[in-house]
Amino acid sequence: xxxxxxxxGHTFSRLLTSKPPFAFSRPRPTPPAPPTHPPPPxxxxxxxxxxxxxxxxxxxxxxxxxxxxxxxxxxxxxxxVFPRATSTVLPDPSRFFAPPLLAAPxxxxxxxxxxxxxxxxxxxxxxxxxxxxxxxxxLDVCYPSRNHSPSFVIQTFVADLTVSDxxxxxxxxxxxxxxxxxVTLDVSPTxxxxxxxxxPYVTVVTTAAGAVDISVSxxxxxxxxxxxxxxxxxxxxxxxxGQTFLLYASAPIQLSQASxxxxxxxxxxxAIRVAYLPDASMEPVLDRYSGCFPVSGDAxxxxxxxxxxxxxxxxxxxxxxxxxxxxxxxxxxxxxRVLDDFRYRSIDGDLVGVxxxxxALRADPxxxxxxxxxxxxxxxVAEVVAALRADVAGLANTPITTTSSYFYGKAIARAARLALxxxxxxxxxxxxxxxxxxxxxxxxxxxxxxxxxxxFYDAKWGGLVTLQGLxxxxxxxxxxxxxxxxxxxxxxxxxIAVLAKLDPRWGRxxxxxxxxxxxDFMTLxxxxxxxxxxxxxxxxxxxKLHSWAGGLTEFADGRNQESTSEAVNAYYxxxxxxxxxxxxHLVSLGATLTALEALAAQTWWHVRAGEGIYEEDFAGxxxxxGVLWANKxxxxxxxxxxEWKECRLGIQLLxxxxxxxALFPDVAFVKDLVTWTVPALARDGVGEGWKGxxxxxxxxxxxxxxxxxxxxxxxxxxxxxxTNLLWWLHSRGSVVAxxxxxxxxxxxxxxxxxx
Length: 755
Known about the structure:
Helices cover 28% and strands 19% of the residues. By secondary structure, it is an alpha+beta fold. An 8-stranded antiparallel beta sheet has the order 7-8-9-10-17-14-13-12, with no helix packed on it. A 7-stranded antiparallel beta sheet has the order 1-2-3-6-11-16-15, with no helix packed on it. Helix 7 (485-502) packs antiparallel against helix 9 (511-522), helix 15 packs antiparallel against helix 16 and helix 16 (688-698) packs antiparallel against helix 17 (703-711). It is globular. 54% of the residues are buried.
């Protein structure tokens, strides 16, 4: 069987390479309705689309690709089609962005967001340093220490080292350039900082025509300031905190101690690089790579399930020394030059040295499928169908009354699930009522006729906002200030994908709106004038490899995200939109971001005792993080205290979908998580909806026990149904020892040619 599967994969590869990159298939006729009892699954997954529908990503960075067999939308892909509106609550970006950058959409959830909000003086974490621009032509550098308890882990900011223009400046800093992996910060008219993520050095260069008087200071006392070479291009700075920093200069620099906490260096022109020295054994490595520094960095998504990093560098030449976090190390290509003994500590786990001007990261592929990978068991079909008929009948009796974009999105996605389950269990007569319900509820949001809310486009930052969010930062959970966009739009896109699949004529009519919603958070175009109406990958962090949800809000702890499963749903739903429209590029992009988001969730949100990423008091007391911040791990949720463990489990699982298998592939961890959660269900007032999510995960390893408990539930989450829970439980297979993927990973039909 394995040889036959491999041979089939090679056949798929030949089919793929024998066609042009975007050779799409013709529209296929609608398949006949499935039988009442679906046949048992074949020994390997049969592709739901021909393999040529998933080519490698094109090398261009267009915002949206060609649309396959459907007609092109009336508006350019990636552009906005919703009405323009002007928000009264969005901040003014011109205060911090250089004028040339204002002509293009701007990032609203990026790793340097604090630098462009309010006074711009809150720190951001660049791994391994936290950086702050406090004003006065200064840049603060901190190698953060951590405080921890059973409830939280937090990095604390202290200005360990400050580099500044001794003359000072009344001007605030400006962002003069940014990209996927770096930001260029003009600290003053004379000093520029190249802040590159994962760089063990912080680089500041002078930009004045002549020499600049430099000040180097600290909140700690300097107890040793020593030149390490005769030329004065390397200095050792030892402090009473026990820390040692190394300072490298591209030209001779003379440091003199003006006070116990301040050094002066008159008349310097060139580049200064400072690096914290965690261990004396690392000094020769820092010396060797100190002359070459990165000034920018790109992350390319040219191939499915791959991210390729490349940095542009300056300085004396040679190779770059960068740092990789634990997920990087898991995905790095085998030929990467990893320095295992060169390590910096981090809240995200040890950061390990990697030498090279480019990296290749490769993830295992994940298939975005409409239905379960195993199929509903024959003995469970009747129970699922009975619940399905009741839930479909209930659609007519329970109209959606909310105007919240989030809760409305959950309601329509909940209904869309019923149609796909009806397909899977062979109940075609249940589909038309769902289609009618979806048309009546989704269309008003797309054609602007919905009363009480709606989507609009604001050009100030370049993105979708809601009617309620135009005047209220708290409306729609902050959607109007670009908070949670992937959560809200992900639910809408799921419903749109299903409706476009079932009614292609409706899908063609509203394709422009669907693609505008996708483009709001999944545009690949670089932020350049005229390239797109939306910023590049609004929510997704191409260095951390997961999304953030914070929007245009200043946070002392940096960006944050609570629900990884809703983030997965967003990219998975976008991939389903691609399947509905025959759009190979969108399927590939959505599947790639889905896979990366799931891996990041397993790395940082799913907590395993003894794994070593988090301190043992926190790791021993938690199995999932509540809210993950750039500088903090919190056991509490935005809406619940740490003791409500069922909410923590549920918010990392909902909505329950076929892709949920990819998010929880480790059966042993799932059992540990459920065991940790179950005692919380005895608390008074636990919601029935949250119990349902606990039972859903229990069903991965004990289906019968989970079914018995699920049948006794008296209510469900507003994005879930009894039908959906029964579908999930009856499509769970037997757990096989050593099968960490639970069968899901092997079902990716284009695994053979993804890399």
